[in-house]
Design a protein that fits this description.
8-stranded parallel beta barrel, binds flavin mononucleotide
Amino acid sequence: MDLYGALRPLIFRLDPETAHNLAFWLGERTCAWPRLSSPEHPAALRRSVLGLDFPTPLGLAAGLDKGATLLPLWRSLGFGHVEIGTVTPRPQPGNPRPRLFRFPEAGLILNRMGFNSEGAEVVAARLKRRPAGLLVGGNLGKNKETPEAQALDDYRAAYRLLAPEVDYIALNVSSPNTPGLRNLQAPEALKPLLAGMLALRQELGLERQPLLLKLAPDLAPEDLDAIVEVAVASGISGLIATNTTLDRGVVAEPLRARVEAKGAGGLSGEPLKAKARDVRRRILTALAGRLPLVACGGLGSPEDVQGALDDGAALAQIYSALIFKGPGLVDRIHQGIR
Ligand SMILES: Cc1cc2nc3c(=O)[nH]c(=O)nc-3n(C[C@H](O)[C@H](O)[C@H](O)COP(=O)(O)O)c2cc1C
């Protein structure tokens, strides 16, 4: 058993958010080690996507390192990229606790964090000292109190601060924990949002920086097709699919009743896998190669990641499986993919 396997029963006896905070406290001290090594990836893992050179297709999904505090650690684990955030323009506390629940027997996480964020200014300042050798994406969201009609202003405010510090930007319109956010996925809302962001990108002279859109797994197939057409027509650079699901039907009984008892939030991990795969395949078919797709959702093994790449995804991201299987998973995935 590896070290994480040995410590896991202890870690999992802690409240999930306490465990997260403890891990970050330790992680920040580890990042201060001057010679925190980073693995060399075989050339075969390299890929050129979105005009960027990724040392490996595997990245860390948004939501774990919301404030970009552990970048050297992610690099040392072997991730090729990290999506930081979601970052909101102004600081906000997120939802009241408890807001994070794990179900290790199913490899499932339920969260309703609600964009706890230090705000774009603080995170942008931290990114000025970001380490080399790791691609960083900035995932942006709107503040909770901002009305839906003013969402574009929030994304633009966060973009102005963060875009100059990162390699790509992801617009998060798919978190289920900010009321109304997912309505921005509707084509009539999406068109002005994407147009407004692309105009700002040009205004700031960042035309070459990729702008991606992160989608929910809870969209009907025809809606996905329509969103793909809006995305391609808009001129954005790519899509990320998927975020967490609201669908409790992905969890089998008797666990489902326990999950439902915890209340609102998005589900991620193993139970999301099949749904995220179906959505990914539908999007890839609709895209027909016109834009790259970043696969996310329920990926937890080399086979899962290879499967997503074989489907046609350009890159893959993980989150929940890292919590359950530990940091050694990154290496295992790299050993097992082509
Ligand atoms: C606790 C937690 C917080 C998350 N926060 C964010 C977030 O702030 N922004 C975002 O775009 N996705 C967020 N996600 C979603 C993940 O990035 C990912 O899309 C989702 O968990 C599916 O991948 P997984 O099954 O590998 O975990 C979060 C997920 C979890 C479990």
